[in-house]
Amino acid sequence: MFHISDDSRADFEDFSDSDSSEPDSPIPRVTFNAGIQQEEDSDNVSESCQVDQSDLSSVKNRIETICGILPNLKSKDGENLNRKSLISELQKLITIYYGYSEELAEYFLKNKYSQNKKDLAAALIARGANVDPTGDWTKEGLVVHSSQVPIGATPEYLAGHYMLQSAASLIPVLALAPEPGERILDVAAAPGGKTTHIAQLMNNKGVLFANDFSKERCAALVANIHRMGVVNAIVTNYNGLDLLGVLPPLDRVLCDAPCSGLGVISRDPSIKVKRTLVNLRQNADLQKKLLCKCIDMVNDKKGGIIVYSTCSVSIEENEEVLNYALRKRRVKLVPLGIQVGSPAISSFRGKSYHPSIANHARRFYPHVHNLDGFFVAKLQKLPRNGKRDQPNKTESVKRKKHVAQ
User: Where is the region Disordered (predicted)?
Assistant: First the structure.
C-alpha cells in the first residue's frame, strides 16, 4: 500500500510486539502472512521431551508430535509452550532423521513466500522509507508514507517479499477468510494483489482459481503470482459470467467487481469527468449478473462464502446490487469479522433495502477511515431447504403494489 504523508519517520521499535508470547504479526501489502516465525524467549518454556537420537522411530514420533503442537499454540493446551524452543528442537530432529544440514532444515521450516513484518519494516526504513502499521483493525501490512527509493523496485519487492496495494484492498480478503485446502475463486483477479493475499492465507494449499477477462491484465497477474512464490493458483482468462460449469463447486468466491471507481478519485481525478450515469447503470447490471453467477458457483451444502466488493461509493453499484442478490438467490448476509467501516445505507430516496444490508455490509470513506472509498459485503449460501432472510415490510409492500399495477 502506498500513501503519501508528512508524518515523521517511524522508528523500528514501533513494530515490536508488547506481548512476546504472540507470533510476529503478518505483513503483506507493502502484504503477506508470516510463516513459521520465531518468538522472543519467555519464562514459560516447556521442557522438551527427551528423545533417544539413536532411535529413528522415536525421533520420527517426536517430529510428528511437534508438528501437531505448532498449529495449536494459541489454544488452551498450548498456551504454556514456547514456539522458539519447539522450532529449534524440530530443526535439530530433522537434521538427524532426514540427514539435512542445519541450514537446509532451517530453510524448510520457513515460509519462503512471506516475510516477517518487523524484518521488512527494518529493511524499508534502512532504504529511506517512512512506514507505519496499517491500523488498529488489522495486524497485516505496512503503510508507506514516503520513500527515498521507488517502493516498487526494491530488492525486497523484486524478491516477492511484499505486494503494493491500497490498505482498503486488504479488507475483502480478510472478510473472505480463506482456509488451506479449499477451492477458491478470485473472479476479477488482475493484477493479483488480492489473489496473492488469498494464497498466502491458504498457506499455498488447496486450489486458487485466479480469473480475469483481460488477456493483457492476465500477464501482470501471472507475473505477480510468480514473483510472490504462489504455487497453488490456476490462472484463467474467461468472462466471469461464463465460468459456471467450467470450474468445480467452490468453497469461497471473491467478487471484487468491475466498477466506476468513484471511491478512488483521489488517485485518478479523470474519473470525475469520464464517468456518466449511464456507466453506473451499466456497471450495476453487470455486477448483479456477476454476483449471482458467483453465488451459483459456490457449494450450498457447505454454506459457501461469497465476498462482494467495489471501489465505488455509489448506491447503484453496492446496496442495489446486494438487494437484488438477496431477492434472487438463497443467500444471507453475515458479519465481515473486521471492526472497521461505516454501516451500509438502509434506505435511499424512499426506497428501503433489506435490513441485513445495513447490519452487515460496510462502507469505507477516505475522509472518515483514511482509506480508499470502498464497499464490502459477505454473503453465505443457504442450503436448498434453508430458511431465507425475508425482505422488510416496506420493500415487500412496494413489490406487491408493483405487481398489482
Answer: 1-47, 384-405
Is residue 29 packed enough to be buried (19+ CB in 10 Å), middle (13-18) or exposed (0-12)? buried
Q: Is residue 39 part of a domain?
A: no
**Would you say residue 358 has pLDDT above 70?**
yes
The catalytic site residues sit at 311
Beta strand 342-343 pairing with 362-364: antiparallel
Query: What residue numbers does the annotated binding site for S-adenosyl-L-methionine cover?
Result: 188-194, 212, 256
Residues pairing with 2 in the sheet: 144
pTM: 0.72
Would you call 270 exposed, middle or buried from its count of C-beta atoms within 10 A (0-12, 13-18, 19+)?
exposed
Residue from 254, 253, 204, 203 nearest 233 by CA: 204
Q: What would the grid cell of residue 180 be?
A: 488451506
Q: What are phi and psi of 105, to 5 degrees?
A: -60, -40
| Residue 147 lies in domain | 12-32+116-164
Which tens digits make up the pLDDT trace of 233-248? Answer: 999 999 999 999 999 9
What is the number of other CB atoms lying within 10 angstroms of the CB of residue 43? 7
Residue 37 lies in a domain: no
Claim to verify: residue 84 and residue 96 sit in the same structural domain: yes
